[in-house]
């Protein structure tokens, strides 16, 4: 009597190692981009509440109250306009007057107001909210995001001033104004990414908050906001290619003033850079936030 033993086949079924590795990499990349967005959506109610409290509380007790949200950007724009249009008599075109300069200047200031306010405050945001650091359940990553949204509120009020001035002077708005969200989204992504990065860096390097005031001043004057790009010396034009605010300012002027489509190549590059800054800034903040409690 012969007993036959079953033959055991050791063949492994499943995708090859290369396919598995590619699938795993795709999952990691998808998570890398999706997690910041998921965090924002999950805490949207808390973010909205804190932004509202920041905007209202900033001017609580003053006579004008929340109207300072409108008055502050207006006064800032008037001051810059007086210096550059009246005193220095800067013109964007040879045949343009001070009125044309005002609109070109104000249009360039719109994104800068939101960007500079958020980035300038971000290095100190964790230090100023140290009471939240040791609360395990509090999502610290929303604090830099609140700054970006508060700056965006300031820009919205400035946009109301700008649109009102356009309508009162009879300039009006063309259909190209509907393209503004295509510029606003990468601006928001870039600002949020830098806020996350600087907020975390500010915990390790306390002096970064003081340095950023100087950096933003230099950044403002190297961005063609209060002067035309042609005024820059030729050997300094390379700065424009490295400055992400330059395509943003140029695109704002294209769709709101010149009634033309923005240059698509710089805008596409801006989208890529802004998305990368958004994800990398969040990843850096999320990685080092566990060290905050030991450093406070």
Folded structure, characterized:
- This protein has one domain.
- By secondary structure, the chain is mainly α.
- The N terminus is likely disordered.
- It contains 13 helices and no strands.
- The protein is globular.
Roughly how many Å is the radius of gyration? 25 Å
Instruction: Report the portion of residues in β strands.
Output: under 5%
Sheet having the most strands:
none
Q: What's the helical proportion of residues?
A: 55-70%
- Number of E-type strands: 0
Decide which structural class fits the backbone: mainly alpha
Report the order of strands and helices.
HHHHHHHHHHHHH
The figure for the number of domains is 1
**Continuous helix count:** 13
Global shape: globular
Low-confidence stretches: 1-12
CA distance, first residue to last residue: 81 Å
> Mean of residue pLDDT?
80
Question: What's the quick description here?
Answer:
This protein is mainly alpha-helical and 296 residues long. Helices cover 69% and strands 0% of the residues.
Give the tags.
296 residues, mainly alpha
Question: Topology, please?
Answer:
Elements: H1 17-42, H2 44-58, H3 68-87, H4 98-121, H5 125-128, H6 130-133, H7 142-168, H8 180-204, H9 208-221, H10 238-242, H11 245-256, H12 264-288, H13 292-295
Helix pairs in contact: 2-7, 3-4, 3-7, 4-7, 4-8, 4-9, 4-11, 7-8, 8-11, 8-12
